Amino acid sequence: GVRFVVHASEVDETLEPDLLADPPEACKKLAKRKAGAWCRRCWPKTTQAWPPSSRRHHGGVRREIFGKPVSLSDAKRMLRCLSGRTHEVLTAVSVWMVAAPEPENISLGFRTFVDRSAVTFRELTDEEIVDYLRKGESFDKAGAYAVQGAGADLVARVDGAMDTVIGLPVGRLLEEFPDFAGSASLT
Q: What is the rounded distance in angstroms from the CA atom of residue 122 to the CA atom of residue 118?
C-alpha cells in the first residue's frame, strides 16, 4: 500500500580497484552515486561534493563482482560460473533526506546500508543456459539472471530475503527506517 516514485539515474558504474576487493563497499558506493545524481539534478546550484566520499581499502580475498553483462558471451560466462554454486547477492540502499527551505539553504542527511542473501544455482547444462539467454531477461540484471522471472528455474535455493535478490530489501529498509511503515507515500 505504499505509493512511490522511481527516479532512474544514469551514472558511471565503474569501480575503483580498491572497491573491487570489497563488494559490500562497492555496492554502497554505487547506491550513493545513484542517489547523489538524482539530488544533483534537483539542486544543481549546490557547491557540496555529491555524493560524499567514504572510501575504504580492504585487503584479503578478491571476489569477482558480477554486474550487468556487457554482451551475450559475458552473460553466458556468468551463468556458467554460477551453475551448481552458491553466491552472495548484495543490494545497497542509500536513503537521502534533503531539506531545502530556500534554494541557497540546503540541508542533507543520508544513510546507506547493504543487505545480503545467498543464492544457490542448480547444475545447469549448456542448453539450459542458451535457452534462458534467449528469453532476454539477462541483459539488465546483475549476474545475468532475474530470480523474479524465468531465472527462478535456475535457482535451487535462496537463503535470506528474496526482495534483496530482486533489488529492494523492503524488510531491511523498514527495519532501518521504521517511520516509513506509517508513511502515506515514499518518494
A: 13
